[in-house]
Amino acid sequence: MQDKRILITGASSGIGRALALKLAAQGNHVVALARNEGRLRALAAENPSIETIALDLANPDALRDFAASGWQGGLDVLINNAGVQDQHRLDDSACTADVMIDEVTVNLTAPMVLTKALLPQLLASETGMVINLVSALAFAPKDNAACYSATKAGLKMFSAGLRAQFPRDRLRLLDIYPPLVATAMTEGRGKGKITPQAAADAIIKAMDGSRDRALIGSARIIAALSAITPQLATRLMSG
Question: pTM here?
Fold first, then answer.
């Protein structure tokens, strides 16, 4: 993929950062959106062709203002990558209303609002595409990440709803299901993680392909298992 205008959320670290650098190196115009201005400056210093937007997707007012701003970029691809995950059970005092609201806002509300706001530009492109970073937890929830699992299941259904609304030749919806990736969000938990660079390579391969979803690594096993025995899949995800 090259010569496309691509907006990536959560692009200052992890998978988003790896995607931004790889896609820019391929000759695409990348717009990196994230809340951490320092990391965005570092990203732009590494590849000056990358345009940056500082925006906190957990802030509903900032999200609403961006959606209403009429941002114009002649967009071809929107990659809804930003995500946050709280690792607490619902009966844990650390699982507060604010924590849950932030999770839902970043993981589900923001992709929906951004897709709506940028839809006219995506539909005007001959190769308009929305890529949603989902999760194997959309198939089988994790006991201490119930809210996160619910947001990813919701994002999965949002993609399905858009596919029903728009024929593929007008807008392509691509769902990405990565395995556990070595990022700040997953630090200190899980084994067998893949690198953000490996995840980005798999995503770019899926972008260049023709399928509507890409199951990466162990996500394939969870998806298959959840269709046969959901209870076992949930037990495996909960460790």
Answer: 0.93
Q: List, in sequence order, every residue forming a beta bridge with 173; answer none if it has no partner.
A: 130
Inter-residue contact 176 to 216 (CB < 8 Å): yes
Domains in the chain, number = 1
User: Which is nearest to 74 in space by CA: 132, 144, 142, 4?
Assistant: 4
CB 37, CB 57: distance < 8 Å: no
Residues 164-189: tens digit of each pLDDT:
999 999 999 999 999 888 876 666 56
CA distances from 31 to 51, 130, 136, 146, 166 (A): 5, 14, 27, 32, 25
> Phi first, then psi: what are they for 39, rounded to 5°?
-70, -35
Closest alpha carbon to 140 in 128, 130, 150, 129: 150
Tokens of 120: 């006219």
| Residue range of the domain that includes 10 | 5-237
Output the domain CATH number for residue 113: 3.40.50.720
